[in-house]
From TrEMBL:
Statement: the UniProt record of this protein carries the keyword Membrane: no
Keyword Membrane among record annotations: no
Record domain HTH araC/xylS-type: where: 150-197
Pfam families, per the entry: HCS_D2 (PF22617), HMGL-like (PF00682)
Gene Ontology biological process: L-leucine biosynthetic process
Pathway involvement of the protein, from the record: Amino-acid biosynthesis; L-leucine biosynthesis; L-leucine from 3-methyl-2-oxobutanoate: step 1/4
GO MF annotation terms: 2-isopropylmalate synthase activity; DNA-binding transcription factor activity; sequence-specific DNA binding
Species this chain originates from: Agrilactobacillus composti DSM 18527 = JCM 14202
EC number: 2.3.3.13
Residue stretches in coiled coil: none
Record domain Pyruvate carboxyltransferase: where: 4-266
Name this protein carries in UniProt: 2-isopropylmalate synthase
Family: Belongs to the alpha-IPM synthase/homocitrate synthase family. LeuA type 1 subfamily.
Source species taxonomy: Bacteria, Bacillati, Bacillota, Bacilli, Lactobacillales
Amino acid sequence: MRKIQFFDTTLRDGEQTVGVNFSITEKVQIAKQLERWGVDVIEAGFPIASPNDFKCVEAISKNIKHAQVTGLARMTFKDIDACTAATKDAANKQIHVFIATSPVHREAKLHMTKEQVLHEIDEKVRYAKKFFDIVQFSPEDATRTEMDYLIQACQTAIDAGATVVNIADTVGYSNPEEFGHIFDELIAKIPNSNRVTFSAHCHNDLGMATANAMAAIKHGAGRVEGTINGIGERAGNTALEEVAAQMYVRKDYYQCENNINMAETKKISDMVSEFSEISIPKNKAVIGPFSFSHESGIHQDGFLKNHATYEILTPETVGMHHSQMPLGKLSGSHAVMARLNQMGYKVTREDMRAIFPAFKAIADTVDLVSEKDLKNIMENKPTEMIK
Ligand code: KIV
Ligand code: ZN
């Protein structure tokens, strides 16, 4: 089975979320938990961006033992030098160099011709290669780049020594079919494509980041990039915990493995949420508390008979405690009876005939029926139950 590498950029692209600014201590703590979670590469920051970013990459390089540590660099000598210096103590390291390749970026932002961009790629990848065995090249805004030119840019990087080519859907423009096709084309048309690892870096502007990343994996990507809880610039990045869960639940479909330790998922998610001060939406896939809650009567009844009826992933798998069955107006008598018995009452199906109408009367007036409400019902026993 192919092994997919997880490249986490919570500390770099994730920190580009509006208002997020991790301290060095927080970054080191997150990096350590990312390592426990099992990521292969940690993008620790953008060393040239600020003295603090430099220090963070340096500190993480000193503290991480197994995962590769990387910093981001534009195609400039000073960026590459800063990255080299910041990662010098890392046990395992790589560099991530990028330049935009799409027409709008070339013309409006870089003011460069196609040839000038190719020249930069060739020169700076060769330079980076002097200091790093593993050089990742990212064509920024790859998904809005002319296909022929994207192939040329990637070919130039590979010929200059790049070992990873990371296709960036910088503005979340692509869709799974189109994104998968880009990987097919690159793999088919680059003669030495088997010498490199292709990687996917997706943004979530149109809500497609995880779907696009999964399409890339299906179409030959050997590395996936993203952030914890999907934080990142604008609408964020691919949420890596979603990728891990997809690969876990649908191994039959993806036929790939990874190094992720699923039971550590909730811990890393909570830590990033706490330090970024961005709460996890209640209905967030995989790690939101509602992901394992069942409210309607039909679902609760099925779930009580066999959890697999309504859960394809168990909360325990991702390090959460247990599923929940909140009681509301759509809940059924089986779930109410189960909860009462959990609370220590010995309630039979017969008793429920009297209890359930009392429960419904309350459920109609509140969002959720609490254990206190249930206790009240039982303390003022419905008349039919008084023997
Ligand atoms: O979104 C993007 O294009 C990036 C690159 C630096 C890979 O984050
Ligand atoms: Zn990005």
